[in-house]
Amino acid sequence: MPVHVQPRATPLSRRSFLVTLGATGIAVAFGDLLPPAHASDITGAAVGDFAPNAWVTIAADGTVSLICPAVEMGQGVQTALPLLIAEDMDADWEKVRVVQAPSDAGKYGNPGFYGIQLTGGSESTRGYYQLLRLAGAQTRKVLLAAAATRLEVPVRELATEPGRVVHARSGRSLGYGEIAATGMLPDPLPQATEADLKPADQWRYIGRRDVDRIDVPSKVNGTAQFGIDVDLPGMLYGAVLRAPVPGERPAHIDDAAARTVTGITRIVPLPYGVGVIGESTDAARRAKEALVVTWSTTSRVRRYDSAILAETYRDVGRDLAQPGVPARAVGDAPGSIAGAARVIVADYVTDHVHHATMEPMNATALVSGDLVEIWAPTQGPTATQGFAAAAAGTSPDKVKVHTTLIGGGFGRRAEDDFITDAVLLAREVEGRPVKVTWSREDDVRHGKYRPLAAQHVEVGLDEAGNIVGWRHRVVADSIFARTLPEMFKSDGGLDTVVTDGTLFNYRVPAHLVEYIRQDNARDIGFWRAVGYGQNNFGVECTLDEVAAARGVDPVSLRLELLSGQPRAQKVIEAVARMAEWERPREGRALGLAYTDAFEAHCAQVVEVSLDRESGEIRVHDVWCVVDPGIAVQPRNIEAQIVGAILFGASHALYEQINIVAGEVQETNFDTYRILRMSEMPRIHVQVTPTPENKPAGIGEIGLPPVGPAIANAVARLTGGVRLRHYPFLPERVKAALAG
């Protein structure tokens, strides 16, 4: 079904106001607030005129339209976030329609991301939780006050049930639609505070397993609208030939053959490549392939060789004379290690990995003078406004972003390149929209990969085997130096996202974490779980080495080091029971790992076997226990954990991007190896909520423990052979076995 959205103005009237909800301000408008400019195609646009605040619109037939401020990319937020509003306003979920928020950070920005619209970092539920529940509670108070006026009874005598206000004493009630039809608004308008939120024992929707995700039916029947599905009247299609080495420019373009392709409208030189505009995607791609380009040879990235740099980074980590930027300094870790009875030293390397989203990068742009419209599967509408404005030579306030469903994000769709492509080509044909779709080869070869990284870990033990000091050095390029340069500078050159996962809950008396930045001019980016995904490898594998050195069980050691952390201990104890940790296995072994990423607690046990001749590792089962704090949607949490576990197993066993002389060697899934269906382990997930705690981040928590658990299982299976380089390719495994 085509997506064609006509822009609509949203003027604010004299009835616009600001309602304070606790410590949070929400801009709200009544009466003449128009529906959002772009509604989710899953559920349609907002309907009705009764808008208690910026998040809720109620129609006379009782339909409740709720805004979803985060982007749906398979993680379930288009259900979970509106559910929070519905809970505290006592909406009838069967009458709820969900609308994707327009690009308006002033109304819909995430408090967890400094008020911008960005979906990532497992921050959606964490960031919006309180705000959306307060919006729901404020809506309920508006409805109660309006009903009290109409029924001529005190507000204190009224209660709500799903979709209705009830006056038990007289037996009368009003549906939300009946209240909306009158347009009656209380004066003064009620405010909401935390005291107005429902207690957990009164929740109707939060924590229930029978609330289905609203995005699933359309994805099953094929009506779901992703960015790649956008179809606008008069639309043209674009493709971009990018320089094989980042930073190079086209020095000479021979486009004679490309211009002979039927349906080609224009060939466009770009700062980083050559764009083609045509009447179809196929024509644009065929013309792109016919281009003959001589590239410049000045880029510093031409010296980039990932295999060589991996060894260099490892050496840098070992060179303790080279100082790093401290991320944590508790006690005197170097001194404690120097005086230790025994020191465990280990180095870990993690290769570049690609996002490998099922929907390739794409965006559609329409440029009309200084106005720009974007239709895109973007994780960051606010950033997209900035990217598009820079490309079009206008200001962000003149850019409107229509956010579609996303066919996989994992951090990749927070970037600017696919947005810039569409805008630069659309400028060439002003007044006509242009959709640019990357090929799979474009996607694989021109990604913003997880950084190549090395970790150097030193742990000092006393005579009894107790940890006296832990030193952890992370050597990698910086994501923040490129994406958030001011934050990077203000933190003194520390990249906090790259060092995530080293600042653990384990109780050690002296702990030093250092970051040593490498700058080799290659753009690297956010990848699912980011620093936790790489650094948990070093932490959890080193802990197993400490357990072996002490002669204690890995479960017991972690429980000891997590004393005073009952949630952490709970998930470790529970997963050990699930996996029957003490039961001997014939030809197989179990490995354990734990993480406290994104304010959640997650422990995993894997069961593996190993073909010593081929070096192939097979993961048979994964058991996982996760404490998410409040479990807004327990069944969806299980689904997210399963997906993250598969993601984690895939990158630990197979995934790698190799760069030689600046050029990526992988091109498609035939060369970029991912976990196949036949290799999927059985996965067993148990969610153990703690409702007294706020919701934790869930979209990424399942990934970090998988790899170290596999490595720890291999060590137990082989009598101590340690795998220290992601991915665990067969040749690397055989080299480790050979000693």
From TrEMBL:
Q: Which PROSITE patterns match?
A: TAT
Identify the domain of life.
Answer: Bacteria
Residue span, Aldehyde oxidase/xanthine dehydrogenase a/b hammerhead domain: 221-299
Read off the InterPro entries from this record.
Ald_Oxase/Xan_DH_a/b, AldOxase/xan_DH_MoCoBD1, AldOxase/xan_DH_MoCoBD2, AldOxase/xan_DH_Mopterin-bd_sf, N-heterocyclic_Hydroxylase, OxRdtase_Mopterin-bd_su_IorB, TAT_signal, TAT_signal_bac_arc
List the Pfam families hit by this protein, alphabetically.
MoCoBD_1, MoCoBD_2
Report what the protein is called: Xanthine dehydrogenase family protein molybdopterin-binding subunit
Organism from which the protein derives? Ancylobacter radicis
Per the UniProt record, the lineage of the source organism begins with: Bacteria, Pseudomonadati, Pseudomonadota, Alphaproteobacteria, Hyphomicrobiales
